[in-house]
Design brief:
With 339 residues, the protein is an alpha/beta fold. 27% of the residues lie in helices and 25% in strands. Strands 3, 4, 5, 6, 7, 14 and 15 form a seven-stranded mixed beta sheet that branches. A six-stranded parallel beta sheet has the order 10-9-8-11-12-13, with helices on both faces. A two-stranded antiparallel ribbon has the order 1-2. Helix 3 packs across helix 4 and helix 6 runs parallel beside helix 7. The chain is globular, with a radius of gyration of 20 Å. The two termini are 13 Å apart.
């Protein structure tokens, strides 16, 4: 089978086409004929060995997102049938509950081989059935970005109808969060530096739009929108570059879900305000298989369509180019590879 793997040296420029033996499923295992994958900022960090020894060893097949069809069943594998469309979960050790040290070492795309391969051997316990109405390239976007948003807003965030949610940017996590928030009956404030992207976010249901380039003190606008109360929940993807303003924008006893650090990992944080305002600062990294299954049920009931940037769709062998293009921020929604 063909695989794309990081080899010889770390870096997206060192992702090369290679061949490995076709996998044979063992006890409780299945083989998936992969049809599509999706790109996340985590994948670029891993390709550069940004997590140190936790990145894994070379050669390494990248990416954690993907979808395909079951093509072979090992002995005792009874949960799926040949032809079922499925998604590998993010961490094959994280089946239920919250993140735990016992899950270490089980994440696809680093430290173990990921989804950018023609055939993927995996335990049937580490797979979720894809929504029946989706094409493979849509289902391929769910594993990381969608589940992270779902975990932040639903599993840990307990979002209720009428809550006011602030989202940053128009990447995959933020747009899934927008769709889930509207599904739950929440009011959404969305920030971006692009008026064109803001207009597209309005079409998806965003209630209030803030261009943070024109309005760098966007937290003040968020306070005005909420009549001085502050927002209930902020999905924070910027890191230290935006965290101070998020702390100022959230209401007393509100929640900040820290998902990304795109604008910096080091800097001063107003810990005093977090304490005196009783703000909950929660780190969120993807989720368990059980959370994924919960999300799929909600997707089936609401027929939510993932937002895919059709101008940023790459071929199987161009995954290195897809990763290298990610930081330019030109995409709207998910960047995918189709096989």
């Amino acid at each position: 089978m063909k695989v794309m793997q990081i080899q010889d040296e770390w870096g997206p420029e060192n992702i090369k086409l290679a061949k490995r033996p076709d996998p044979e499923p063992g006890l409780g295992e299945i083989v998936i004929d992969m049809k599509a994958t999706a790109i996340n900022p985590r994948d670029l960090i891993l390709a550069r060995r940004g997590y140190g020894r936790h990145s894994g060893d070379l050669p390494l097949i990248p990416l954690a997102d993907g979808a395909g069809y079951v093509s072979a069943l090992g002995e005792g594998a009874t949960k799926y049938q040949i032809g079922d469309m499925v998604c590998p979960i993010y961490n094959r050790n994280w089946l239920t509950g919250t993140s735990d040290v016992s899950h270490a070492g089980g994440s696809h795309g680093g430290p173990i081989d990921g989804t950018q391969c023609e055939k993927m051997l995996i335990s049937e316990s580490a797979v979720v059935r894809a929504p029946s109405y989706m094409a493979p390239k849509q289902a391929a976007t769910l594993t990381v970005a969608a589940l992270t948003s779902w975990n932040a807003l639903v599993e840990q965030g307990h979002t209720k109808a009428g809550n006011i949610i602030l989202l940053q940017g128009t990447g995959g996590v933020s747009l899934f969060a927008l769709q889930f928030a509207k599904m739950l009956g929440a009011e959404v404030i969305l920030t971006s530096s692009s008026n064109e992207k803001l207009a597209r976010a309005r079409e998806l249901g965003a209630d209030h739009l803030i261009n943070y380039r024109d309005n760098p003190d966007w937290h003040r606008s968020a306070i005005e929108i909420t009549n001085g109360r502050g927002v209930d929940h902020i999905v924070e993807i910027g890191g230290t570059g935006t965290l101070d303003r998020s702390i100022k924008a959230v209401r007393p006893s509100g929640t900040l879900s820290l998902i990304g650090v795109l604008a910096g990992i080091a800097g001063e944080v107003n810990l005093g305000r977090i304490v005196t305002q009783n703000i909950r600062l929660q780190g969120v990294t993807v989720g368990s298989r059980q959370m994924f299954e919960n999300m799929v049920r909600a997707l089936e009931m609401n027929q939510i369509a993932p937002v895919i940037d059709e101008t940023a769709t790459f071929a199987f062998e161009d995954v290195g180019q897809a990763l290298a293009a990610l930081p330019n921020g030109k995409h709207f929604g998910k960047v995918v590879c189709e096989f």
